[in-house]
Design brief:
The chain is mostly helical and 383 residues long. The protein folds into two domains: 224 residues, Citrate Synthase, domain 1 (Orthogonal Bundle); 100 residues, Orthogonal Bundle (Cytochrome p450-Terp, domain 2), CATH 1.10.230. It contains 16 helices and three strands. It has a three-stranded antiparallel β-sheet. Bound molecules: acetyl coenzyme *A (ACO). The site of acetyl coenzyme *A (ACO) has 20 residues, from helix 15.
Length: 383
């Protein structure tokens, strides 16, 4: 039986409404649908910032000067490449495996190449942050190419973070319009307060594990269908629905079966997620230029029927609802949607990791024991 001197608080399933940290990184007003990274509204960042600049701001609390941004960008470019041994290791992974699992494995292994980091040393922490932000896109693109039997593509130092990722996937410089849209998507996904993967990152960081273990555990948490994995499930669902006419019959059946509809609902937001609004506009910009997809009409119809049926319960589109439609138009394969989320969210995870270490206490919540009362061991011949 555990003895604990701390006061016993009521059990809250999923820790709903339980503050797990004091944080300066991100703030959400879920009733109004407002999101700020370090006080900056997401709409302004999506319009005016870049992923590199947003990452710096998340890590260090304020927008960088030109000199700081140039230095940070240079560091990111410099650290994009992977060690050959890591590439060899990734080649042993099954090609049919999910890229999120490959990412978790590769990030975990990355720590073996940069061991003994002193997590309390600011310069070493910075180095680890730069490496992780810089290398995640290279890992995702490399795994995608090797599973198809394509040759490795080295990062292109002339391209920014988003454009270089598209370049590494396709071995072709992307359309700047595509690169700009992806850059905005990365800004939109870079941070979101105490979500499940960020909580994982903070829990792992609280044991003073290194940043690679922190990010590997966060990647694992992000992969689930209730979290980042939903962006892939949304496209599966839209394809399964197939036609606008089938939205209502499909939803009737899904609701009768008490199915959760991917891309809808959020612990914090009780209105449409502000990121979903921006992603929908990005999708529309892409469709205006390159032609729409029938899946978009299905998505819009599904959103309107869901609003009629469950809007009063506060269930609206979340960030994952429109992102897949954008990524699909950018030519990104479906099973890379969640890895793209990770490429962006790594900046938020690391900002929280550093914040956790500033005032660390290991996470060790209590529990409510509901198991068997104390009893004696019965030998096997008497059971
Ligand atoms: N479809 C249908 N009903 C839903 C949905 C949904 N997507 N989401 C919530 N509800 C209903 C629940 O059935 C429940 O109804 P009830 O009170 O009548 O039982 C009520 O809304 C509350 O739902 P919970 O699951 O308790 O809410 P919780 O905060 O625990 O979960 C979550 C939030 C996991 C996001 C949930 O809404 C969900 O499963 N959504 C679908 C998966 C998804 O899109 N995940 C991505 C979220 S964004 C992100 O992580 C990046």
């Amino acid at each position: 039986m555990e003895t604990n001197t701390e006061p016993q608080l009521p059990y809250m399933p999923g820790l709903a409404g339980v503050p797990a940290a004091e944080s300066k990184v991100c703030d959400i007003d879920g009733q109004k649908g407002i999101l700020f990274y370090r006080g900056y509204p997401i709409e302004e960042l999506a319009e005016k910032s870049t992923f590199e600049e947003t990452s710096y701001m998340l890590l260090y609390g304020q927008l960088p000067t030109k000199e700081q941004l140039d230095g940070f960008t240079h560091e990111l470019v410099h650290h994009r490449r992977l060690k050959y041994k890591l590439i060899d290791l990734m080649k042993t992974l099954p090609e049919t495996g999910h890229p999120m699992d490959a990412l978790a494995a590769a990030v975990g292994a990355l720590g073996m190449f940069y061991p003994h980091i002193n997590v309390m040393d600011a310069a070493q922490r910075h180095g680890a942050c730069v490496r992780l932000i810089a290398k995640l896109p290279t890992i995702v693109a490399a795994f995608h190419r090797m599973r198809r039997g394509d040759r490795d593509v080295l990062p292109n130092d002339k391209l920014n973070h988003a454009a270089n990722f598209l370049y590494m996937l396709n071995e072709q410089e992307p359309d700047p319009f595509h690169a700009k849209i992806l850059d905005t998507c990365l800004v939109l996904h870079a941070e979101h307060s105490m979500n499940a993967s960020t909580f994982s990152a903070r829990v792992t960081g609280s044991s003073l594990a290194d940043s690679y273990a922190v990010v590997a555990s966060a990647v694992g948490t992000l992969s689930g269908p209730l979290h980042g994995g939903a962006n892939e499930d949304v496209l599966d669902m839209l394809q399964e629905i197939g036609t606008v006419e089938n939205v209502i019959p499909w939803l009737d059946k899904a609701q009768a079966a008490k199915r959760k509809i991917p891309g809808f609902g959020h612990r914090e937001y009780k209105v449409k997620d502000p990121r979903a609004k921006i992603l929908q506009r990005l999708a529309e910009q892409l469709f205006a230029r390159y032609g729409s997809t029938p899946l978009y009409d299905i998505a819009v119809k599904l959103e309107s029927v869901m609003e009629e049926r469950v809007g009063s319960k506060g269930i609206y589109p979340n960030v994952d609802f429109y992102s897949g439609l954008v990524y699909q138009k950018l030519g990104i394969p479906m099973d890379l949607f969640t890895p793209v989320f990770a490429i962006a969210r790594v900046s938020g995870w690391l900002a929280h990791w550093m914040e956790q270490l500033e005032n660390n206490r290991i996470f060790r919540p209590s529990q409510v024991y509901v198991g068997a009362p104390p009893r004696s061991y019965t030998s096997i011949d008497r059971r």
